[in-house]
Design goal:
The protein is globular and about 55 Å long. It is built from twelve helices and eight strands. Helix 8 runs antiparallel to helix 12 and helix 10 packs across helix 11. The N terminus is likely disordered. The chain is 44% helix and 20% strand. The longest helix is centred in the C-terminal third of the chain and has 16 residues. Keywords: Methyltransferase, Transferase.
Length: 269
Amino acid sequence: MPEPSSTASAEPDELRKPGHWLLAKLGKRVLRPGGLELSRRLLAAAAPTATDRIVEFGPGPGKTAEILLAAQPAQYTGVELNPDTPQTLTALIESQPQARIVHADAKATGLDNESADLVVGEAMLTMQSMEDKRAIMAEAFRLLAPGGRYAIQELGFRPDDCPQAVMNELCQTMSRLIKVGARPLTLQGWCQMLEECGFEVETRLTNPMLLLEPRRIIADEGLLRAFRFFINVRRNPAARTRIRAMRQAFRDNQEHLHAVAIVARKPRR
């Protein structure tokens, strides 16, 4: 007699795969905790120019790449671990002769030393261990020429003196819901880690963490894309259940969660 399948294997993908996979499947392009607004503020502070060589870690669907390429940089390199590049990013890269995608790990890109003037990474460090966070920051430092900028947007705990017990409990709650290890830091913690990796922090920004709130989805995606996303969620009961649970957890913990964005610079020699 064949053995019954496990409960986990019987679950639909919508209930067991990472939260960012689910949102992308349903049509969401902006997966940043502080939304497109904070991305724009971050990139305005990083000030990409036509002479910059830009490296972006984890470009995903390409929304940040779109903003970066609008500055017409000298070069753009997206470092993407996923071999299945989203069609939106592929189309964008193919339309820009100075742009390319490299399939590599952000911890070890294989790119040359000091080959970038601006490195950007959004919504990727939060999901890494402390060791891997430092490894990715160290790789950004290696890639940057002296005076180059490193711009990040991540999930953060607040306030800076948030009790460790609260942070530990929130990490467990979020990891269980999004099916990926979530390890945010406080704004002070993110800045300290960057400084330990050799950077000088220049800009600190924050925004409410409203990723799954309808008004933020409309602001991030535009009215038509947001409408399609809402329809896709409504038609998929498993996805609807999962997203409601994630949104409620974010709402319940607004007091201790926000989005942080930082621009740090590699010192000049």
